[in-house]
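testing teh design pipeline on a random one, pls ignore if ur not involved
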């Protein structure tokens, strides 16, 4: 079980598409003071979980909680709470489908993830380990000679 640190940020968002970008940016800002946490990976997984809340949950809002790094191993936990009672279902997305890959991304990129029922609905919780976060995202990207990606305004080779 993850022994997370204190809550760095809590955000309440309307369950509408524009809120996904707001949640993603707020989560990245929450980890700005922690250079060993891959904020690009946090943004990607928050975006997936928030999109799931917008598309499939109930109620007017969803919430995102970002925890500080665990003192024991530097890992972080992020929680996305919504009012839905149905737990996420794994889908097999066809090549051109625009959805259906969120749980596969969590499997691939998060050190751990789970869902829990709560009194208000459900919560999706994912854990990222600081040492693994950069390598997980890099391993998931195709290698392209000379390609770069942006990280906080800096360009670095892929």
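output:
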């Amino acid at each position: 079980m993850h022994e997370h640190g204190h809550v760095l940020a809590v955000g309440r968002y309307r369950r509408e598409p524009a809120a996904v970008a707001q949640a993603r940016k707020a989560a990245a800002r929450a980890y700005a003071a922690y250079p060993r946490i891959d904020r690009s990976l946090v943004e990607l997984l928050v975006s997936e979980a928030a999109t799931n809340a917008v598309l499939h949950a109930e109620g007017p809002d969803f919430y995102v909680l970002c925890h500080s790094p665990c003192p024991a191993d530097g890992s972080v936990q992020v929680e996305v709470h919504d009012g839905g009672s149905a737990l996420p279902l794994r889908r097999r997305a066809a090549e051109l489908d625009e959805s259906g890959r969120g749980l596969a991304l969590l499997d691939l990129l998060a050190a751990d993830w789970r869902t829990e029922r709560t009194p208000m609905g459900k919560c999706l919780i994912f854990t990222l380990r600081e040492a693994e976060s950069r390598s997980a995202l890099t391993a998931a990207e195709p290698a392209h000679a000379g390609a770069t990606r942006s990280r906080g305004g800096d360009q670095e080779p892929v």
